[in-house]
Write a structure and sequence with these properties.
- The chain is 30% helix and 16% strand.
- It is built from ten helices and eleven strands.
Length: 336
């Protein structure tokens, strides 16, 4: 028996390996449950750091770079972009890892950098047209911003979309997520100070900076199965291979996404499965396109999405592919 640890922010008590835990929203723990099971089939016991005997550790898995935390042979699951977690761009930190798993197509070489994707438990929603969808369009995201200035930042574009709908089509739009009861904040230290001040002030007066805000959601699927379209922007655009769970959340609910993110999205997902925001001058043009769509055309999007999800092309985005790629790579690597 070999012993390994999974290290990352907030990873304790083996919670991430528990599929029935209340924190397993939208089954987001499924890839890690499979990861642990797959390792176990090779006689490797995987635990979070607090549950492990560090004297017997054969290797560690890190969710994003964990500075000053390497105490054994380590492998990196590099999820966040450098614009969100700057350490992930530090080549001196890269050198501390035996192999790095990444979505970044510019880094992948099949030797030191192994391709993986943000994993998802694949669900196929039947094409159901408009019948059960009493809401027109939504956006589900957190009220956040990048800590550095970058032209690829899509947080401001989300806000532009929200503001347009609130001004021109409030009846057709719903906003969900965390912290939209607060105004948009500045990046960096100033933003952190603003957030604390607004949260403190909210105890004494009511803020409503975004009238379309409907609150948090327990399960995104509950909203998306009732909604025809979703504004689905990644945090950052034009990063090759950076395709997160956002577009798949829509697919699994039969909701058609208005997508903006990876420049090479069509390499991985057929372009007729989503509405490409890059093809429109502004959100007004997007809205006109959505309003003109017939139910038969919408139904066609849903059918193509279901076909994609059942195809081999969707498998690299599955929980199973994630577990197999990570485990097989590490087991083979340690055996050589």
């Amino acid at each position: 028996m070999m012993f390994a640890t999974l290290r990352g922010q907030g990873l304790t008590k083996n919670t991430i390996f528990n599929r029935i835990h209340p924190a397993n929203r939208d089954d987001c723990f499924a890839p890690y449950v499979l990861l642990r099971e797959k390792f176990a089939s090779f006689s490797v016991q995987l635990n979070t750091v607090d549950q492990a005997n560090m004297d017997n550790i054969s290797f560690e898995l890190h969710q994003d770079i964990q500075p000053d935390s390497i105490s054994a042979v380590s492998y990196l699951l590099m999820f966040e972009t450098v614009l969100v977690k700057s350490e992930n761009g530090d080549q001196n930190e890269w050198a501390k890892y035996k192999k790095i798993f990444t979505w970044n197509d510019e880094l992948v070489d099949g030797i030191s950098f192994i391709k993986f994707n943000f994993p998802n438990p694949i669900h196929i929603h039947p094409a159901d047209g408009y019948a059960a969808r009493d809401r027109f369009c939504c956006l589900i995201a957190g009220n956040k911003t990048l800590q550095t200035q970058d032209e690829r930042n899509l947080y401001p574009e989300r806000v532009k979309a929200i503001r347009w709908f609130e001004q021109h089509a409030p009846q057709d739009f719903d906003l969900y997520g965390v912290d939209w009861h607060l105004p948009v904040l500045h990046p960096g230290l100033l933003g952190k100070i603003e957030r604390r001040l607004w949260r403190y002030g909210g105890k004494y007066f009511t803020l409503r900076p975004f009238p379309s805000y409907r609150g948090k959601v327990e399960h995104k699927r509950d909203v998306l199965t009732r909604t025809r379209f979703s504004i689905c922007y990644e945090n950052v655009r034009d990063l090759p291979g950076y395709i997160t769970e956002k577009i798949f959340d829509c697919f699994f609910a039969g909701c058609v996404p208005v997508y903006w993110g990876a420049a090479n999205i069509a390499k991985y997902i057929p372009s007729d499965c989503f509405i490409d925001r890059r093809k429109f001058h502004d959100i007004a043009a997007v809205y006109a396109f959505l309003k003109a769509m017939t139910e038969q055309e919408f139904y066609g999007y849903q059918e193509r999405i279901a076909t994609f999800l059942q195809s081999d092309a969707a498998y690299p985005f599955s929980s199973e592919f994630f577990a197999e790629t990570v485990v097989n790579t590490i087991v083979q690597d340690l055996g050589n």
